[in-house]
Amino acid sequence: SYVLTQPPSVSVAPGQTARITCGGNNIGSKSVHWYQQKPGQAPVLVVYDDSDRPSGIPERFSGSNSGNTATLTISRVEAGDEADYYCQVWDSSSDPNVVFGGGTKLTVL
Amino acid sequence: QVQLVQSGSELKKPGASVKVSCKASGYTFTSYAMNWVRQAPGQGLEWMGWINTNTGNPTYAQGFTGRFVFSLDTSVSTAYLQISSLKAEDTAVYYCAREGVYSSGWYDYWGQGTLVTVSS
Known about the structure:
Radius of gyration of chain B: 14 Å
Mean pLDDT of chain B: 96
Order of helices and strands of chain A: EEEEEEEEE
Strand content of chain B: over 45%
Largest interface: A-B, 26 and 24 residues
Distance between the termini of chain A: 36 Å
Distance between the termini of chain B: 40 Å
Shape of chain A: globular
Oligomer: heterodimer
Order of helices and strands of chain B: EEEEEEEEEEE
Shape of chain B: globular
């Protein structure tokens, strides 16, 4: 099955930029989606198809994908951005078809 | 507005069965696929599979065959997850998640989650 690798944790000061990576074999050829999950809550889609934002998601959230790494970038980080972030892909050749990364805990210092 | 409302927490004994419901509102139920995702305590997200809300045809991920059944009642816009022969390792929060567009692979609305606890 396809494997997505995320760093367990990322820390950033308020107002700075956080970058959360998601590694996978030739992930640049796939569409990557990102979810934010706060404690006790359901995940929320923050970026889909590598770099598109659902309505209601601030422009501070952006995504990129190339080669073997996809990246979620959060600009001007706020305390409210502290959460777990998961990357996800759909791969028709894999079983399971849908794979999530292990998640990254974003801590706002 | 789009909402997915799941049934409440369940406490079950090993060997029992449980049925979790996911009631959709605010959109045409049969226009979007429904997926199921599991999250064990303190762990990440794990995709269980999906059900075609037009045909009722389910697809199960590896590891979720046999004891897991997805079903629908389109008359009440509700999807169901049934787990039989429960084991302690089935203890988790189970989410239903709407696929944004059929075959898009991304999930734009999620239920609030249903905690299933399996303990003797």
